Structure prediction request, 127 residues.
Amino acid sequence: MSGTGMWNALIRTHHITSRKKVTKLKQAATLHSVYVLLRSGSSPGIMYVEGSEAGVEGWKLRYKDYQLACRPAPVKHEDARRPNVDMRSDHGLSETDSVKDFGQQMQDRGVHSWWRRGMGYSQNDGP
Prediction:
């Protein structure tokens, strides 16, 4: 599936602590017109990227212990309800220093079970 639908990917790294690196990530999010949620500060480093197919596919990163936990693919929401955020107008980079908050934001976006599987927290957690 391609075209104008929303795509996402999940990236895990050892950690992201450098403010210079975060600035580069903000620039890349703007360049690719994608939304990025970044868990920074300590291990694990987590990046969720969402946007057009081209934007998500173009999100090329090189970091220590980089792992593509969930490959770029069309977003599949966990239920028929609309997510609690408007993803079409959501671009740029947001940061959190808490895995708990990251998980809550994944819940709000309607991809919590997908995120849990990608992180290795669950194998059979929902769709």
In short: Residues 32 and 58 are 7 Å apart (CA to CA).
